[in-house]
Write a structure and sequence with these properties.
Blueprint lengths: L13 H6 L2 E3 L69 H16 L7 E4 L6 H12 L3 E5 L6 H9 L6 E5 L6 H13 L1 E6 L6 E6 L4 E6 L7 H4 L4 E4 L5 H14 L6 H9 L5 H18 L7 H10 L9 H12 L8 H8 L3 H14 L3 E4 L2 E4 L1 H6 L8 H4 L3
Parallel strand pairs: 2-7, 2-8, 3-4, 4-7
Antiparallel strand pairs: 1-3, 5-6, 9-10
Bound molecules: adenine (ADE).
The site of adenine has 11 residues, from helix 7.
Length: 402
């Protein structure tokens, strides 16, 4: 898997850094003539998430540019034009879609705002996309930020006072909220009230401000890391799961159409098979295969064979494993002979940081049954041994508790 820097189309300006936000503002109930144009006051200026505020990740993050009229292949913001805009266009996550459809219809019927929603699951599965879809369906603005950008109370206060009735505030990586910020959210979420302390020590005073009723959509890869007071304030808590082949293949076909790239259903399936159950990776692999075909094969149609050939070149194997996955598993097998290995050891050996291994690599390896987390450390399963061409030892089942 290639490591990419977080690319912002533009560095945030000083004002934007002040309240540490990225806005995806959209005029409420736009007249049709505005539908495809970008309102002046919501130009990309406000949309870039400070790179330093993003978690280490192997992929560009979602929060980069959120209300874009950009062409599909504009540098630095390819993800945006590929996002489905309406629930009906969103492929996969059937259960989640059903739950949200009901929540949207009920809120609309009662002319109420949506309940606060917590979305959790591995990166790249569509949490940001879902928040933007909710805003579109409810015809409200969506403001997008990431928890590490909300360092000071005034960062979150600035966002909250700017919310209009029904607006959505999307906070990515919400498990990383600093405690001071999190505590401000409690009253904001529950009573739509902003409690701020002015001054310090004995002269400190608390002021309360009424807020408009808004909807907080929190996203996290680590739901267990949320404090219970925060978790309990979400009316809806929903998991996003990895996509299966039948869901990812049409996503690849849809993206290919948007990118005007010729591809066969077999070509799309080959890319989907290697995409680790993750639309963001599927779309990225498609772009790599498209490059390969344009440069090496003079723009030939992407078939199954061509997709496989291209992805082998990029070191993505038929199960979607990349160099880091294989290195992790190989070290577990060769150096530890199937005994449990600690997370920090894996991080040191692969050069990846522990958080990326835990939140990006391990969930998929566990999903396909190649890795197990045990109280004593990580173990490569017999399936992983076989995939990499090793004969698993007889005592593996004992170690795995089988
Ligand atoms: N592009 C990325 N994720 C998608 C999804 N779930 N449905 C349709 N297109 C997508």
């Amino acid at each position: 898997m290639e490591s990419m820097a977080i690319i912002s189309s533009k560095q945030p300006e000083p004002d934007d850094r002040q309240d540490g936000e990225a806005r995806g503002d959209r005029k409420r109930r736009k007249p049709p003539s505005e539908e495809n144009s970008m309102p002046k006051n919501s130009a990309p200026r406000n949309l870039a998430v400070p790179a330093s505020a993003m978690a280490s990740s192997v992929m560009p993050k979602d929060g980069d540019l959120l209300q874009s009229a950009a062409r599909p292949d504009e540098v630095g913001k390819p993800e945006e034009s590929l996002r489905p805009k309406r629930l009906a266009d969103y492929i996969g996550q059937k259960d989640l879609k059903e739950v949200l459809e009901i929540a949207i219809k009920a809120a609309q019927k009662r002319s109420e705002t949506l309940d606060h929603l917590l979305l959790y699951g591995p990166p790249g599965l569509g949490k940001t996309t879902m928040a933007l879809i909710l805003a579109e369906e409810m015809q409200v603005n969506c403001r997008v930020t990431t928890a590490p950008a909300l360092e000071r109370p005034r960062d979150i206060a600035g966002l909250l006072v700017g919310m209009q009735t029904g607006d959505i505030l999307f906070i990515d990586e919400i498990h990383r909220l600093p405690m001071v910020t999190e505590e401000i959210l409690y009253a904001a979420m529950e009573d739509f009230r902003l409690d701020i302390t002015i001054g310090k020590g004995q002269s400190a005073k608390t002021r309360s401000l009424d807020l408009q009723r808004f909807t907080l959509v929190g996203a996290t890869t680590k739901v267990g890391a949320l404090t219970s007071p925060l978790r309990d304030r979400f009316g809806l808590v929903q998991r996003l799961r990895f996509y299966d082949l039948d869901e990812l293949t049409p996503i690849v076909l849809r993206t290919a159409e948007i990118l005007s790239t010729a591809i066969t259903p077999e070509g799309a399936a080959e890319i989907a098979r290697r995409a680790r159950g993750t639309p963001r990776i599927a779309n990225r692999l498609l772009r790599r295969v498209r490059d390969y075909v344009e440069v090496k094969l003079e723009g030939a149609i992407i078939t199954g064979t061509i997709a496989a050939e291209a992805l082998e070149r990029f070191n993505v194997d038929p199960c979607g494993l990349d160099w880091t996955d294989r290195r992790m598993l190989t070290v577990m097998i060769e150096s530890f002979g199937g005994r449990p290995v600690g997370l920090d050891t894996l991080a040191a050996i692969t050069g990846e940081d522990a958080q990326t291994i835990e939140e990006v690599y391990e969930p998929y390896l566990m999903q396909i049954g190649y890795l197990q987390r045990t109280p004593r450390g990580r173990i490569a399963t017999p399936a992983a041994w076989k995939h990499l061409g090793y004969q698993p030892p007889d005592n593996q089942l004992v170690l795995l508790g089988g």
